[in-house]
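Quick question, first post here. What does this chain look like in 3D?
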Amino acid sequence: MHPLVNDIFNVTPSNFEEIVLRVFNYQYKTIPIYRRYCDLLNRNSKNVQSINDIPFLPISLFKQHKILDGEMYDVAFTSSGTSGDQTSTHYVKDENLYKHSFTKCFEQFYGAISDYSFFALLPSYLEREGSSLIYMVNYFIEHGKPSSGFYLYNTEELLKNISAALKQKEKVVLFGVSFALLDLAEQHQFDFSEVILIETGGMKGRKQEMIRSELHQILVNKLSSEHIHSEYGMTELLSQAYSLGNERFHCPPWMNVAIRSHNDPFSFEELEKTGGINVIDLANLHSCSFIETQDLGKKHSDNTFEVLGRFDLSDVRGCNLLIQ
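> Answer (accepted):
Ran it through. Tokens below.
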């Protein structure tokens, strides 16, 4: 395991910038595509002196290039996409690093994995290969209570088994993709007030997209759940942020976000202003820890952030510097 890993997962607010700069210098030296991108912006190990100097790699470059510090890797995750879309691939050099990241992150916000029964209603992810979300949730299911399991469209069986787990006084988490949770809410009456319901993903072309607050209000009303939690993650990241019921996401210590300007991707917005979400994920040690996403959001003074939507025509943003 790389010597930086221990520092990454023990990072504190006081040494965060120091560790970030060390990771940048490592990735500038070892990841060819990222170095090329930085060089085109005239950013390098000598003139990057603070977090604000670090270039964020456009996320769409994961569709076109192998972002990795070498050739060998343990597992490759691919993004979902509609028919004909080119998907992203994240080559993960050390899958144990991914396991450590998502385990430590979940347990920071919710407690020990072994204390929970995990149920997963993730049909669009189960129906394809290479999903990092399925990999993570499968690990939770294997290390959670015996009642844990995946479900496709057999929602009656899902509700029966959740009910049985609740009767056994087990703590229950349900991970659900947005369109499947809406279908569940429309088709069944069930009291989810004692279930931690974690919404993830989106409509995946199955239903009309809607803003998160609207989705959560529908789910709260129909599922008798006081709060809907959310997970913010993606194929190109090895860490997740969690919203614990108020639509504001919290990052683990080794992850942070900054909001870039609508008009200038190399400048940043003030707190409470809407712009593009840039993610620092130090767990991405062997690919790229500095990602310019295609999501819109805003950051708050308590270091939480909201996700408000997507950029239009986002696939073409930021990539022109590397197009020959």
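The domain at 97-243 is CATH 3.40.50.12780 (Rossmann fold).
The chain is about 30% helix and 20% strand.
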